[in-house]
Each structure stands twice: as structure tokens, then as C-alpha cells.
Amino acid sequence: MVSEALIVHEPTASRFPVGRIAGWLLLAAILLAFPAFSGAYFVFMATLVAINVIATIGLNITVGYAGLLSIGHSAFIGVGAYTGALMAIHLGTPLIVNVAGGAAAAFLVGLVFGAPSLRIKGIYLAIATLAAQYSLSFVFQQWTAVTGGDRGLSVPRVDVFGFGETGFYYVVVALAALLCLAARNLFRTRIGRAFIALRERDYAAQVLGINVVRYKLLAFALGSAYAGAAGALTAMFLRIVNPDQFTLAASVFFLAAVVVGGQASILGSILGAAFMTLMPEILRAVLELWGPGGTADVAGFLSPLREFIFGALIVGFLVFEPRGLAGLIQRLVGRSNN
Fold first, then answer.
1. 2: CB partners within 8 A, 6+ apart
2. Helices 266-290 and 248-261: crossing angle, nearest 10°?
3. Domains of the chain, each with CATH number or no CATH
4. Which of 2, 183, 212 shows the shortest CA–CA distance to 119?
5. Distance of CA 107 to the CA centre of its chain
């Protein structure tokens, strides 16, 4: 009986290890103190990373956890960005309301464009999401009365509690943390387990009593809602929205973040978003330090180089490390513990 009690209570005792709690507290302290010990540029980049983390988690819900291939993610980010911008311009609503509006609009649009996933999958589904990318891009560019066309929209400045960019950083980081926690807890629920069952084999999931139609649509819609929230934050942060921000190349960027970071992993989404966001800045610094020519030459060389590196990273991680950076770290930690 004693051994049975130990077996029952041991997982409960190890569910909240002291080391993990200390690690999270240390990370929270670093994030809180970061603006005080860094310049405006680093606060800007940290805010951009946090926004991209939200968008990457959304794509990972659809692609990594539910197994529904999507290459039109930036279009849903655009839906959220335009919705949040229009709300700020015409209604004067606060930041959180704009983010919620952007997420809701993208959720509804995701339901519409998620419909092809009910009958097709694989490469055919990828082509369908590519159609969504180009359809929404056409709307962004041509519906000039609402979106401003190629000129785009100028968004009023958001001043959070009078702290300016620092206040915006804290709001974005807090939202990213909450949405990471929500996504992690989602996959401990029936909905999350249904997504994973769809990824493994949708026919078997249907035999088990899972409503495949409902959960496929929900996977697309939830992923799009995260994208919409990230889009609204992007609009409020950059204070400008135009169609050039939501191209196919931007969708490839987030797909690369999922693959590089690790599919079906919240940690992978964070690592992938941070890596893909900071990599161009690191390349620029290296080229300016050791490359020939001036800043203009570096900018002209960096754009095609970045696209090449995105493609090479996707292929490289798929071949050599399918679990991405998250899997690599977990393996290294496992080796160090042995």
C-alpha cells in the first residue's frame, strides 16, 4: 500500500519542480527588467519577436498539431492588421479591444478558408491556402475605399499608460505569455487531443467518434485567430498597414519559423520565431562588419540572401533535425542529464 501511494503521488509532486519554477521566475524578471538595461532598438526587436511568437504559435496549431498544411498565414495576419487599424482609426477603441477585434475577424475568415480542408489534404490543401493568400492580398490591394490600396493605412500612435514603446513592449510580452499558456493548456483538453488525432490519421479519428469536420475548421480558425491578434499588434506597433507586409514571402517566413523551431511544440514556436526574426539583423551586422561596400550594397545583397537562407533552413531542418530547435535542445539536455 505504501508503494502504491508513492506511485500515485510521485507525479503530482514532480508536476511543479522547484528548478522549473525558479527558471520561469528568472525569465519573468529578465523580461521585466529588459527595457531598463537596453536601448530603444533592442526593445523594438524584442517587441517584434513577441508579436511573431504569437503568429508562429497560430500556424503551429494548424500545421504542427492538427497536421493541416497552410502557406497563406500572412493573409490572416493581414486581416487582423486591417481590422485593428480600422477600429483604431474610426472607432478610437483601446489597444486590447483592437487586438480582440483583429483576432475575431481572422477567426471568421479562417472558418471560410478552412472549408477546403474538409475534403482535401496534403499538397492540394497547400494549394487551396495559397489561393487564400492571393485572394486576400487582392482584397487588401484593390479595396481602396477601406484598405487604402497600395498606400495603406496610417494608424494613430498608441501610448500605453504613458510609457510609450516600453509600455507597448510590456503589453505584447504579457499577451504572448498568456497566449503561449493558453495554447499549451489547449492540448491537454479534448479539443487539443482531437487536433493531434487528426494529424495522425483523420479516418481513425472519425472512427473514434471525433467530429472531423468541426475540428478541422476549428484548427484553421484558432490558428487564424492567433494570426489576427498578431496582425492587430503589428498594425498598432508599426503604425502603418499596407499589402506589402502580407505577401507570400511573409507566409514562408512563418512556415520556416515553425519548421526551424519545431512542429507541435510551443517552445519550438518561441525559438523559431526568435531565430527567424533576429537572423536578418545578425546577417546585416555581419555583412556590415566584414562585407564590402556600404549600407546600400548590404541591403541589396541581404534581401535575396535572406530568401535563400529561409529555404535552406527549411530543407536542412526537415532532413537533419525534423523536431527543430526544440528537439535539438531537448536531446542536448537529455544527454547532459545522463
1. none
2. 110
3. 41-337 (1.10.3470)
4. 212
5. 15
Cα dihedral: 212, 265, 103, 83 (round 10): -120
pLDDT in tens, the chain (338 residues): 433 333 333 344 445 567 667 877 888 899 999 998 888 999 999 999 999 999 999 999 999 999 898 999 999 999 999 999 999 999 999 999 999 999 999 999 999 988 887 777 777 888 888 989 999 999 999 999 999 999 999 999 988 877 778 999 999 999 999 999 999 999 889 999 999 888 887 777 777 788 888 898 999 999 999 999 999 999 999 999 999 999 998 999 999 999 999 998 999 999 999 999 998 888 877 777 765 555 555 556 666 777 777 778 778 887 888 889 998 888 887 765 55
* Residues in Cβ contact with 177 at an 8 Å cutoff, skipping those fewer than 6 apart: none
Distance CA(88)–CA(82), nearest Å, equals 10
Cα dist. 50→80, 127, 186 in Å?
Answer: 16, 29, 20
As a whole number of angstroms, the distance between CA 252 and CA 131 comes to 14
Q: Among candidates 115, 127, 229, which has minimal Cα distance to 179?
A: 229
Residues 308-326: b if buried by 16+ CB within 10 A, e if exposed: ebbeebbeebeeebebbbb
Give the whole-angstrom CA distance, residue 147 versus residue 157. 18
**Local structure of 153: helix, strand or coil:** strand
**Cβ–Cβ < 8 Å for 55, 236:** no
The per-residue DSSP string of 25-64 comes to: HHHHHHHHHGGGGS-HHHHHHHHHHHHHHHHHHHHHIIII
